[in-house]
Design a protein that fits this description.
DUF488 domain-containing protein, YeaO-like
């Protein structure tokens, strides 16, 4: 039986695009510094799914705060607009490879990593 689990990965927007990226979606609220729209090779920019400014400022990419950041961000994703965006990302992942992009230096400690975890699960499992 073929797995129906969505295929999703996270990458830095500054990394060169890969032919296996599939659909490339930027999930940062702010446009990445020094990145032209042409060089981004984006299919979509889903900035409304990004963490709130308050949460992003509190987190400040401190690895010690990542677990709590993930918990708080998951709470924010219950907001109807963000929940709809999350459903949209799940739909995209259901069609093929989805690459969530962020300008964050530590992509494994970013909102993209939290989103990838959620996109890879059924809605009832989060």
């Amino acid at each position: 039986m073929v797995s129906t689990r969505p295929r999703v990965q996270v990458r830095r927007i500054y990394d060169d695009p890969d032919p296996d990226d599939g659909m490339r979606v930027l999930v940062d609220r702010l446009w990445p510094r020094g990145m032209s729209k042409e060089n981004a090779h984006l299919d979509e920019w889903c900035k409304t799914i990004a963490p709130s400014t308050e949460l992003r400022t509190w987190y400040s990419h401190d690895p010690a705060k990542f677990d709590e950041f993930g918990r708080r961000y998951r709470e924010e994703l219950r907001d109807p607009e963000r929940a709809a965006d999350l459903d949209h990302l799940r739909e995209l992942a259901g069609r093929g490879m989805l690459t969530l992009l962020s300008a964050t230096k530590r992509i494994d400690l970013s909102e993209a990593a939290v989103l990838a975890d959620l996109v890879g699960k059924t809605p009832a499992s989060h």
